[in-house]
Structure formats: structure tokens, C-alpha cells
Amino acid sequence: MTCWRDWLPISLWLFAGAGQAAVDAGVITLADGDSRLLRGATWYKLAPGVGLQDADILTGGARSQVQVEFTGGTLASFAGEGALMINVAKDGALALTLTAGALKVAVKGPPVRVRTTQFEASVADGIVVMRADGGELFVEAGSAKLSDASGAREAKRGEYWVKSAAGFATKPLAPKPFVESLPRNFLDPLPVLAPGLKSRAVPAVDRDITFAEAEPWLARDRAAFEKRFASRLRDPAFRKAVEPVVARYPSWDRMLHPEKYQPKQPQASQ
Predict the structure, then answer these.
(1) pLDDT tens across 98-146, in order?
(2) By the 8 A CB rule, do 113 and 97 touch?
(3) 255, 238 in Cβ contact below 8 A?
């Protein structure tokens, strides 16, 4: 039988961050297709009016599209199969992490950082359209600062940039295949829809995340997501899936097998 002491380390770890107030990031104003919200370790269904918080993750399917209107006026439309993670610093600075899919961002106010696996773009008072899968970006208005391990570049209005293993390359106009790969509404200005919302909506719980779904995030940032998903270790199915690879996750191994980390007793001399 499971004793409450078995879960005490997890409870204390989770309690340490429980008192932190959620940072308001913005509101969902459009949610089409198979789009969902991952908050903490729980999946929620999306609907217009659902408020977003720091560390929320939006995911979508091949035909999904989600528009977010952030606090401060920045608009973002995320489309296609992939994920978009939202981070809001204490000073209100906004950072978006796009793992896959297409994104259009119209930035108003302070710069917004958009991270992909290939590069990072910093956009201030501008509009960019990008595809994470191909490492592509088009500057529709304003400018963007692109950076990777090799340095930084200034991308100006009307320029198309692509990042490959060979480095950055640019053209004066977006190529036809890139334009045709985007949702049609990306060719138009993003509409401001928040004023038309009658009230904020409460997200409907779908289910908890599985270990198979958690693994890609653990591979991206092991320490952060170990802590984020630690509550799932209470679930027998999740715990069973973790056990064969628990050595990859030191904090979970310590929680599930505390006896391995007990100080060794000195052997009595004969």
C-alpha cells in the first residue's frame, strides 16, 4: 500500500511553487480545428475567451489555427501541426517558442522574441510571418533582428530569410512555395477580435498528459519539465512508463527510489 510519506518529496517540491501568482499573458480570440492548451501537466480544450498564462503551451493539428491577443496589443496567429510556448517575464517581456508550424506575429510595443530550433527573431513594432519547419521568415512590416550561434543579422521590410545548415540566406521577396504553404488569412492583417468577446471563458479540462507526450518537452529542457510534470508520477500508468528510463530524470529517480540515495551505513568493524 502506498504511504503518504512516499509522496512527501513530490508534495514539497510542488508546494514550493504553488504560491506564485499566474502571470496574465493574453486571451484566445480564435480557436479552430484540433487545437489544445497544455497548462501544467493537464490538457485543456480551447475556445475564444480563454485567458492565457505564463508557460502555457498551445498545440495544433494539420488544420488548426489559433489567434492570441496579448496584453499590450501584440497579435499572434499560430497554425498547423506543432506547438507554441508562451513565456511572460516579470517585467512583461514576451517570448514565444515555436517548435513547428506557421506563425504570424504583429508586434506592438516592446520587442517580442520568437525562438525556433534554427534561430531567434526579435521583433519590435513590426510584423513577421514564419515557418519553423523550414527555418523561414518574411518581414511584412518593420524589421526583425535574427540571431543564431554565428551572430546577428538585421532583416528589413519585404525581405525573406531562410536558415539552413549552410547559414542564413535572404531574398528581396518571399518565394511562391513559402507563400502557398501559409494559411490564406496570413496574407491579410490580423483582425483585432478581443473587444467583441463578451466575457472570459474557463478552459474545459480534457485529460492529463501522458509520458509519451511529455518526452519531447523533457528532451527540450529536462530540469524545467521534470518539475512541471512531477505531479504525474502519482499516476500508476505514467509511473510505469517512466520506470524503464528513470535514470534519465535524476529528480524523478530520487523521488521514486529514495532508498538509492540514502547515506550508506558504515560497516561495523569485526
Answers:
(1) 999 999 999 998 899 999 989 999 999 999 999 998 899 999 999 999 9
(2) no
(3) no
Predicted confidence band of residue 270 (pLDDT cuts 50, 70, 90): low
Cβ atoms 161, 146 nearer than 8 A? yes
Give a three-class secondary structure readout of 181-218. Answer: CCCHHHHCCCCCCHHHCCCCECCEEEEECCHHHHHHHH
Tell whether the model's pLDDT for residue 217 goes beyond 50: yes
Sheet strands side by side (includes 160-164): 51-53, 24-32, 65-70, 75-79, 102-106, 127-131, 136-141, 160-164, 167-171
- Alpha carbon of 4 to those of 7, 42, 226, 260: distances in Å? 6, 23, 21, 19
Distance CA 79, CA 103 (A): 6
Phi first, then psi, for residue 30 (nearest 5°) are -150, 135
User: 89-103: per-residue pLDDT in tens?
Assistant: 888 899 999 999 999
* Residue 101: all three cell numbers together: 508550424
Full 3-state SS string of 45-84: ECCCCEEEECCCEEEECCCCEEEEEECCCCEEEEECCEEE
Give residue-wise pLDDT tens across range 15-40.
434 334 566 899 999 998 889 999 99
Predicted TM-score (pTM) above 0.85: yes
Measured over the CA atoms of residue 191, residue 196, residue 199 and residue 203, the dihedral's sign is negative
Give the chain's domains with CATH numbers.
22-196 (2.60.120.1440), 209-261 (no CATH)
